[in-house]
Write a structure and sequence with these properties.
Layout (H helix, E strand, L loop, with lengths): L5 E3 L4 H9 L4 H8 L10 E3 H15 L4 H7 L8 H6 L5 H11 L7 E8 L2 E8 L8 H19 L7 E3 L8 H4 L6 E3 L5 E6 L12 H21 L2 H12 L7 H8 L3 H10 L4 H17 L6 H7 L5 H12 L3 H9 L2
Parallel strand pairs: 5-6
Antiparallel strand pairs: 1-2, 3-4, 4-7, 5-7
Helix pairs in contact: 4-7, 10-11, 10-13, 14-15
Pfam family, one: HTH_18
GO molecular function: DNA-binding transcription factor activity; transcription cis-regulatory region binding
InterPro entries: AraC-type_N (IPR032687), Homeodomain-like_sf (IPR009057), HTH_AraC (IPR018060), HTH_AraC-typ_CS (IPR018062), Tscrpt_reg_AraC-type_HTH (IPR020449)
Length: 336
């Protein structure tokens, strides 16, 4: 696998099939993003191209629910060994944990997480490259895949606690759910699905613990090896973006996550020609640009999401980096 923003190329098969079935011009769109209309599981594709395909398909078909509808019928075999192993998981929890632990074998610059807080479980997904935007179709596709795993274990009558998306309303509500089964929250920190934690113990149809366990260990080990083979700056950037607004993003905190001392982290970044402060500023400003492009998000909320102590500190940092205030950028961006 390459470093950075990639995805297993065969993941594009389902979006391609969906576009073809609806009468879309598959060849033209594949040429536009520079990919093969018959993608192989042995190759990788730029994540930007993958995301762009579903965005362009939804626009061409005038179908804002395109991503969710593709994810709802997604063939897990199209993401290679991880997808095949997930289908052998003995329980829903085992399936979701494998997705979390081995996701680097499917997609880079991204994360799937699974958390349990009391009696509520939350599975979340996020692309960690702020330059890949818009990406609402990809977010809905992936969340539909994850919701589909819950469907497999629980049947179609279960009710989520909440479905959340990092993007704003996009007109897909009528397609996404056959009925208003739960609250949908937009402009969230990440894309997530909340459901009763007891469901994690539900058996998966076709699961086989004996064949799953060795696959689980091997895939998680390989994903960890891929992660550690990446440049330190790439790993730092990923952890900063994943933690902004949720956890500490100081250099010492990130060094602990990476399993090294603050001094070692500083030295390794110096060897790669960068500094921690530069990476932190780059991540914050990249996300800020995207959030400021949405007038519904208050500047104070942008500052909070990015971990600044207050709005004034954010405005100072933004002006220093961009040569204008956040409000000036927003006016310039939204100017007709």
């Amino acid at each position: 696998m390459p470093h950075g923003s990639y995805i297993v190329a065969s993941a594009l098969r389902d979006p391609i099939d969906a576009l073809r079935e609806r009468g879309g011009d598959v060849l033209a769109l594949c040429r536009r993003i520079g990919t093969d209309p018959l993608p192989s599981p042995e190759t990788s594709l730029s994540l930007r191209s993958f995301v762009g395909f579903s965005q362009a398909a939804a626009e061409a078909l005038r179908a804002p629910g395109f991503g969710w509808s593709v994810g709802a019928r997604f063939d897990l075999a199209n993401i290679g060994r991880v997808g095949e192993a997930v289908q052998r998981a003995p329980t829903l929890g085992a399936a979701l944990r494998l997705f979390r632990d081995a996701f680097a074998m499917v997609q880079g610059d991204s994360m799937i997480d699974l958390e349990v807080d009391g009696d509520i479980a939350t599975v979340s997904y996020r692309i960690l490259n702020p330059r890949i935007w818009p990406r609402d179709q990809d977010a809905e596709l992936t969340m539909a895949v994850l919701a589909g795993l819950v469907d497999r274990a629980a049947g179609c009558d279960w009710r989520p606690v909440e479905l959340a998306f990092e993007h704003g309303p996009n007109g897909a509500d009528g397609v996404r759910l056959d009925e208003p089964r739960c609250r949908v929250r937009y402009r969230a920190q990440t894309n997530s699905l909340r459901f009763p934690a007891r469901m994690l113990d539900l058996p998966m149809p076709g699961g086989n613990a004996d064949s799953f366990r060795p696959l689980e260990r091997a895939l998680a080990h390989e994903a960890s090896r891929l992660e550690h083979a990446q440049p330190v700056a790439v790993r730092v950037r990923r952890h900063i973006i994943g933690r902004l607004g949720r956890d500490a993003v100081g250099q010492s905190a990130i060094a602990v996550v990476l399993g090294m001392s603050r001094r070692t982290l500083r030295r390794r970044l110096d060897e790669e020609g960068t500094t921690y402060s530069d990476l932190l500023a780059e991540c914050r400003i990249g996300i800020a640009r995207r959030m400021l492009a949405e007038p519904e998000i208050a500047i104070a909320d942008v500052a909070t999401r990015l971990g600044y102590s207050d709005t004034t500190a954010f405005e100072r940092a933004y002006r220093r980096h961009e040569g204008m205030t956040p409000a000036q950028f927003r006016r310039q961006f939204l100017r007709p």
